Amino acid sequence: MAYHPPTALPPELLDDAEMQRALTEHDFGTVFRLARSRAGISYSRIAAECDIKPERVGTLARGTGRITTFDKVVMIADALRVPGHMVGLAPRPWENGLSVDTHSREIGTTVRRRTVLAAAASTGLAVALPALHQPPNLNHIGPGDVAQLRARTARLRRLDNILGGGDTYRVYLSEYQHTKGRLRTASTTPDTRRSLLSLLAEQAQQAGWAAFDGGRPAEAGSLYEESMTAAHEARDSDLLGNAYAFLAYQTADRDQAAEMAARSCAAITDSAPATVRALLYERMAWACAVADRPADTERALSAAHTALDEQQHGEQQPDWSAWVDRTELDIMTGRCWTELLRPLRAVPVLTQALARYDNAHARDKALYLSWLADAYLTAGEIEEAAAVTGRALALSTGVASVRPRQRLTPVLAQLGRHRDVPAVRHLLESATA
Question: Which terminal CB of the chain, N or C, has fewer other CB atoms within 10 Å?
Fold first, then answer.
């Protein structure tokens, strides 16, 4: 007998205009509120069926926080029996008369992941996202095949704009492993092999970044090392420099991180595109700021700004560095000055840059807001720090990344020393609810 969850929404509620709007916008707080007020479905039942803490359901219904991971969207759709098209998903199995138990292991992560990625494609989260199945294994790989694989990698990279590494790591790792297998088995010309090795280095870095973001630092380090080997064999100095920069970013020893960042900048050649140069110099600036080297930080930031100033109209930029722009560089500048305890420099640049930064990039904006909160704390502006921290917490809720919470935990600890301030007390109570 097909399982019918006690939280299934009645047809008349699914036809309601307010419910349809909430589902389209993934405003599940409103969905939960309407389910209780109009269908008598309690928050505790919703929590049990959707595998969400009861207090979290209530918080969402009051308008605080968002559901942003697609695994959770799938689970909610199944628990509330919301047809897939209403939330941007492929048709759910139960729509075709098949049983779906949202708590069953029979569906499994792989099937949910396939639905998640299909949803990402249909809702535009990744432009023209390809199907989850791998490209065909070819006995011979030519330049056109490498170009198609590189374009696929670029499309998949768009997932990182919205999802955290906990959601994307397996996808990126699979792409890397597929390319690695083609290098072992397919015949290529020497030039094509070098191009394929460059792609392998790029994919290893993307998978490493997702591993780092998802709380897998050991896997990230291994992938960066493998990327370095592939880039060296491909004679791709840009990706070699980026591999060093990635390693520097997650290295705990501050002096060692600064040394690695210097090696990444040493790999820059005259032919390096503007965004590659800017990216490597801004990561050098960060490593120097963490190592408390203000003069070196300022020089690296200046070099990054110069790189963007020198960008020629129509100059081709690799997809993996094309995201570096003035806003990103301003945010890095503010982060560096925050680390160097220069809040009078940090606050204006971070405030202006974050005003231009889209909330849709929830993970990254939450992270960047944490540095703004830090800067306010250093300046003694406790109420402002509490307000910014609250914004960061709301954005980071539900994001499959460990980094926002890692950044915000010490900020909350510092704010805890000012519990007598009403804004701080309210924030701390909300954060632990």
Answer: N
